[in-house]
Amino acid sequence: WDVAPSEFQTPCITLLGRRGGSSLAAATLNALARMARGIRF
pLDDT tens for residues 23-34? Predict the structure, then answer.
């Protein structure tokens, strides 16, 4: 969070609070999938 600007941190925290843990897990899986694609290709 230190790298991201404060204007970006607040909306993300709000969205995570509204949607809940399930979407947070989905976002994490999507990020991991993108990282895996970047390594493979």
Answer: 767 778 778 888
C-alpha span between 27 and 16 (Å, rounded): 10
Domain count, the chain: 1
Structural domain of residue 14, as residue ranges? 6-40
- Token digits of residue 12: 């993300």
Confirm whether 1 is domain-assigned. Answer: no
Q: Name the residue among 37, 12, 34, 36 with its Cα closest to residue 24.
A: 12
Residue whose token pair is 């999507």: 30
| pTM check: above 0.85 | no
Give the tokens for residue 3.
Answer: 């790298």
